[in-house]
Write a structure and sequence with these properties.
There is one protein chain. The chain is of the alpha/beta class. It is built from 13 helices and 22 strands. 43% of the residues are buried.
């Protein structure tokens, strides 16, 4: 006999809890199911813990540079990794327990722990229990991918989740993957004191970005002592005593990098392989991502997919926006769509990269007439005052409509500054709106109007 609900939510990541609570507050009888840890990736092994670790790494970095600011530290700088982890764990625990308490204290909402699988289009099985609902919302997230690299089964390796358990300093951390996750961990552990080598199959880092962004990031990280092995054509692993040998077969240099520990940061896969989606007839693509329309509906009426598992975004903010879209359409009569949102994200190296809209490469490919503005961070007063002048800011504008097409801001505080441009883009306003605005001095954002006043044709 199935227990009937008005709605069932699978997963407690960024979209699930808010949606479950919102539905319950309307008087619906709702069940939310979690098989592992409340809060999902962001809370437990993604944004919150990694950025907490980044903060500890930055503190060590700034302390080592104290002399640059006229500050004398009379003892050596040491990093206590057990205390670093304990601080991270405390922040994570507060967030995770907060999510669980919020859900358990919500009226009309039943919290169930266990592994949910579809029995059919409207029924979910958890062990011997069966739940039934007309509406089911899938918010199961994703996990680190483990590619079939030669010898990978012969060595021990870490991923973004197991790195959260590390309470020691790796002697030499070899990171496979020179993109967003890999680079954040690379800088973080270099600042903690590890030797770090990043192995990347592509010819440049974060290849999704423009070449000038990639090269600038590489220069910044190399200045801190991080080593890079690009064009790694055939990555393989071999255990050598208590070390790990990574074959990279690069076009130049040694063919092997030998380290104490290896971190795999080569992408993610959705947690959809063991949900019994075939029993409900829910369509997935060849990578396992659930196929959804512009309002996040699957091909099965009444079943929706939100967050990382739908392949429509891989960020906490896109997952939360998925919740907002579903709630608006179901409860508010507001026809919101996934395609209404503008691409926006950040890379949390130090300095960070803030991104919005199209890259320069994408604008060029579109063959539209465009204007470009670019300013090095050496010409930004706030950066000079803080002694952090790495990076540059770049913005692209449609020459005919005067609308902002995109921006890449790499520099101090640029993960915040990017929103000044993003908001104008959402307003569908001319770049002159922000170009004529009076910003506060001294800030980083104040140079955005200046840069927009110096636009030149993109050639």
């Amino acid at each position: 006999m199935a227990t009937k609900y008005d709605a069932i939510v699978l997963g407690t990541g960024q979209a699930g809890p808010s949606l479950a609570v919102r539905l319950a507050e309307t008087g619906m009888k709702v069940a939310i199911i979690e098989r592992k840890r409340f809060g999902g990736t962001c809370v437990n092994n993604g944004c919150i813990p990694t950025k907490t670790l980044v903060a500890s790494a930055r503190a060590a970095h700034v302390a080592r540079r104290a002399g640059d600011y006229g500050v004398t530290i009379r003892s050596s700088i040491a990093v206590d990794m057990k205390k670093v982890k304990a601080r991270k764990d405390a922040v994570v625990r507060q967030s995770s327990e907060g999510v669980e308490k919020w859900l358990r204290n919500t009226r009309n909402l039943t919290v169930i722990e266990g592994h949910a699988r579809f029995a059919d289009t409207h029924r979910i099985r958890i062990g011997d229990d069966v739940l039934e609902a007309d509406k089911i919302f899938i918010n199961v997230g994703g996990r680190a991918a483990v590619p079939p690299l030669r010898g990978i089964d012969q060595v021990s390796y870490l991923n973004n989740s197991t790195m959260m358990d590390v309470d020691f300093l790796p002697e030499h951390l070899i990171i496979i993957g020179g993109s967003y996750v890999g680079l954040e961990f690379a800088q973080m552990y270099r600042r903690f004191g590890s030797e770090v080598t990043v192995v990347e199959m592509a010819s440049r880092l974060v290849k999704r970005e423009d070449e000038d962004v990639s090269e600038n990031i590489k220069t910044i990280l190399e200045s801190e002592g991080i080593k890079f092995r690009l064009d790694a054509e055939c990555i393989g692993f071999e255990k050598r005593g208590d070390k790990v040998a990574v074959q990279v077969e690069c076009s130049s240099g040694d063919k092997t990098a030998i380290g104490s520990h290896t971190l795999l940061a080569v992408g993610r896969v959705p947690n959809t392989n063991d949900l019994g989606l075939e029993n409900a007839g829910v369509e997935v693509d060849k990578r396992g991502y659930i196929q959804v329309d512009d309002q996040l509906r699957t091909n099965v009426p009444g079943i929706y997919a939100l967050g990382d598992c739908n392949g429509r975004g891989a960020f906490t903010h896109t997952a939360y926006n998925d919740y907002e879209i579903v709630a608006a359409n179901l409860l508010d009569g507001d026809q919101r769509r996934v395609t209404d949102r503008i691409t926006a994200y950040a890379l949390y190296t130090d300095p960070p990269l803030g991104r919005a809209g199209m890259t320069e490469a994408e604008v060029r490919k579109s063959e539209r007439k465009a204007l470009i503005g670019k300013r090095p961070m050496t010409q930004v007063g706030r950066a000079q005052e803080r002694g952090e002048t790495d990076g540059f800011m770049k913005v692209l504008v449609d020459a005919e409509t005067k609308k902002i097409l995109g921006a890449s801001l790499l520099g101090i505080e640029c993960d915040e500054v990017i929103h000044s441009l993003l908001d104008v883009m959402y307003a569908n306003a001319s770049y002159t709106v922000i170009q004529r605005a009076m910003h506060i001095h001294p800030t980083v954002t104040e140079l955005i109007p200046t840069m927009l006043g110096e636009l030149k044709p993109l050639e």
